[in-house]
Amino acid sequence: MAIRVDGAAGRLRFGAIDMPCTIGRGGLCAAADKREGDGCTPVGRWPVRGILLRPGKAAPDGIRLPWRWVREGDGWSDDPADPAYNRPVQLPRAFSAESLLRDDDAYDVIVVLGHNDAPPVPGQGSAIFFHLSEGRPTAGCVAVDRADMLKLLPLLAPGDVMEIA
Hints:
Blueprint: E1 2-6, E2 11-14, E3 17-20, E4 28-30, E5 41-53, E6 67-69, E7 74-77, E8 88-90, E9 97-99, E10 109-113, E11 129-132, E12 142-144, H1 146-152, E13 161-164
Parallel strand pairs: 1-13, 4-5, 5-6, 11-12
Antiparallel strand pairs: 1-2, 2-3, 5-10, 5-13, 7-8, 7-9, 10-11
Protein name: L,D-peptidoglycan transpeptidase YkuD (ErfK/YbiS/YcfS/YnhG family)
GO molecular function, one term: transferase activity
Keywords: Cell shape, Cell wall biogenesis/degradation, Peptidoglycan synthesis
């Protein structure tokens, strides 16, 4: 099934569920034009790969997708020079990488999307996630409020995709 994101309208739909969502501060862009750090949310159809949960902040009850707890030292490479670009990595690291244990709540739930990962092309965008809203545009991800995310999580299943338009 498809999670449909209407970036211009700021709406996300999954079956009969319709909720507000936030996209990147740079708006929407064609996936081929996506560049690391541009704040743009790439238009396209991205497989839902799995879920990362912060211990004590979200429960895995009813989740049908592959999931795991985020641990100390978990990061995601955002350095185009890194051989592990746009992949999960362990911190500290010689290359730039984003920590998955943030000071805010945005990454309490991370749905990993299959953008630029088969294989990753250095510089064409990393860490395009579906995560919790911070009340402002994202760095290129799609985000929703916690209550909406928790309603949606148990409905997602292997084979689902996110369609961003």
